[in-house]
What does this fold into?
Amino acid sequence: MSSATFVKSFGGGSAEGRARDKALLGGKGANLAEMASLGLPVPPGFTITTEVCRYVMAHGADQYPDGLAAEVDAALTKVEELAGARFGDSTTPLLVSVRSGAPASMPGMMDTILNLGLNDTTVDALAKKSGNARFAWDCYRRFVAMYGEVVLGVVAESEEHEQPFDQVLDQIKSKHRANRDQDLKEDALREAVAAFKQLVLDRTKTAFPDDVKAQLWGAIGAVFRSWNNPRADVYRKMQNIPASMGTAVNVQAMVFGNLGDDCATGVAFTRNPATGTAELYGEFLINAQGEDVVAGIRTPEPIHELAQKLPAAHAELVRVAKLLEDHFRDMQDLEFTIQAGQLFMLQTRNGKRTGIAMVKVAVDLVAEGKLTPREAVMRIDASKLDEVLHPTIDPKARPTPIAKGLPASPGAAIGKVVFTANAAEEWHNRGEEVLLVRTETSPEDIHGMKAAAGTLTARGGMTSHAAVVARGMGKCCITACTSLRVDAAKKTAAFVGGGKEIKIKEGDVLTLDGSTGEVFVGPSPLVPAQLGKELGTLMEWVDSFRRLKVRTNADTPTDARTARSFGAEGIGLCRTEHMFFQPERILAVREMILANDETGRRTALAKILPMQRDDFAELFRVMDDLPVTIRLLDPPLHEFLPHTESEIADVANAVGRAPKEVAAKVAELSEANPMLGHRGCRLAITFPEIYEIQAQAIGEAAKLVVGEGKRVHIEIMIPLVMVPEELRRLRVLVSEAFAKASGGIPFTVGTMIELPRACVVADRIAEHADFFSFGTNDLTQTTFGLSRDDAGRFLPAYVDQGVLAVDPFVVLDPDGVGALIELGVRGGRATKPGLKVGICGEHGGEPSSVEFCHRAGFDYVSCSPFRVPIARVAAAKAALAEGKP
Ligand code: PEP
Ligand code: MG
It folds into this structure.
């Protein structure tokens, strides 16, 4: 390192920084330094460190630490020497780019200025040197506009207005009858520069700076300021990037890809980022500047064409790409420019990739001896495995969305829109692919959700009924799409927003992306799920590293089988009320809920018992001696009460009562806050026969399956316990019924911990529990005082505005909910040191929450079948992060 404190130079085969200096130099600066030190062709430049950004934040805009100006001057002199050009020179002028570059990737959030160093004198020198006056004036007009916008703030008053420089350029284009920017000749470009400068003078009352040093400091100040622009601020909050990190500023000699047909600019990946195949992949444009590739004005050519057009530069790119990948031991994303046949590298970073590519690249790099299995697992972004397990929208042909909701269950689905569950089933039976579009869903819609390829609802949240059920089925689902208005009776819907309305009717085709929450009109191209052999290899490594067991939330034999194929090691939550979604079964549950007395309830329960027994028996057969946790009924009543006239008539008919009488009972049972009402074990405290019969059904099923020569491992779980006495009583009740029905098969009884009070008195609850399973859906709901079903209406705004970093129903809140969980684990294990502890809320399949569970000493996590592989990876990463040998 040099004696310079705030500025680090690179170029000419050496550099003062390295890739490891990201905190100080930002990602871009650190990797430019690394490339330069490897002797790669990098245009010379220097990086002003993030420390200066922090100084500016503390002292105010354009206030710099002592000595910075001298360091910048010295670094600039080095660049001049290496580039053989001088800043502001009237014969051989040096032009530079000034770019932001934070330690964390923040794509497009901050500002960049290109072609800096041009004025009325240097533009002529550039024209002469390049022998291309049009090129020189094109650079100049781009620079004045970019600088005018970014540094001098000459921008449109609001989003509806066109940017002022674009407006002026459009006028000049129409005057010169030029359709495209590249059709403008030198005289038109000269006119544009003059008009742009006039615009700056009119708007800022100050002339555009001719002095190149003033330009440079203006640009440096603007890049530092852009660290705190609103979009960067929001992005940081979303990504949990601390504002104190600051950005670096990179000043680098310009190279030009737009000087003629032996010039080009492009981007390349060292492997195919969609499939992971080991091949140089990317695109380029001959005679163009970098922004032309991004702007999509011209269609770039695939990288292999470069071998024909500029073979020497292509060969050099292939060499550099391999060298960089070997050096960083990961797939690289490269930006390059070719000037007069010579390759220059402008950026390298670890490349973004699809889930499939992520798995393949990691496994291939191990096979190539570049990574250890442990390193490969640590590199896996567990949440991206979703893409491997579900079909996704082809990233190469992604259209513009018309609406956005919460990404409740991943994967993509295309289908004809229907507005009722029955229609979904009918159309599906006719062989149509359908999407169920509803204001909200209820248990009666389950057959429609099953028939549909995906579900879209206007209301709900990440743990609302539709979301939980869809995730369980591995089907795409979007909830809380607040711009959606459904008129199921008229079989129409509309997406309303931004002064526009897009109407759809039954049969119209939409595409849903459950991984992003986006809705598209018409069919979008999909790529199917691909479970290659690489995933199997990766998962073997994963399982050798993890300590946490991974179970699944499954209510049906099909879900249980799927989960086992994904590696589930038991069922952590079987929601028994979910076994009653079919119409004939829901009737029996309704009968039970609406019964006037114990006799009525027992009659209804007698209908339920054999269905439950058979379901449990099948589940035990599928799980084959793996633990199965069965939760006794926990139906929030509103989800199961009949609402429509025909539903009420059906129940009335079944129980031989007048519809009016049933309607009156429904009214009597309706609750102001059903989620905090007569649900969970409260039902069994008032009506013990409900749990008694359920325990009997479980016992009979166990006896049946054991009689077939199989083994069972049964855990009965009591939901929503708030005081130890609830559990004490119900444990006695359930144990007696199970023992009697099963004839003495061993079993355990535990409880869900899903209320703050239960966490606080966990030591006493543990006296009656063989295990705890944290129900973090309800625990989040009750800790935050946020309704699971209604939060979707306003929680996205909290996240958008950065009031909350993430939706706490998706990512476990470590500070509040997490602190209660830790209290609960401590209390429980104080009473019973070996107490088994798990989680069965939706967080059980979310990577950072799984890592939390590992650190909190859980025995297992339980999640929906399609998230089992994700949880396995997250569990392994948590163990590796701890340095387990
Ligand atoms: C929970 O509350 O986290 C839970 C698993 O139970 P449910 O979602 O069924 O209320
Ligand atoms: Mg719950």
Q: What stands out?
A: The first strand starts at residue 7 and ends at 11. The mean pLDDT is 92. Residues 14 and 37 are 4 Å apart (CA to CA). DSSP finds 35 helices and 34 strands in the chain.
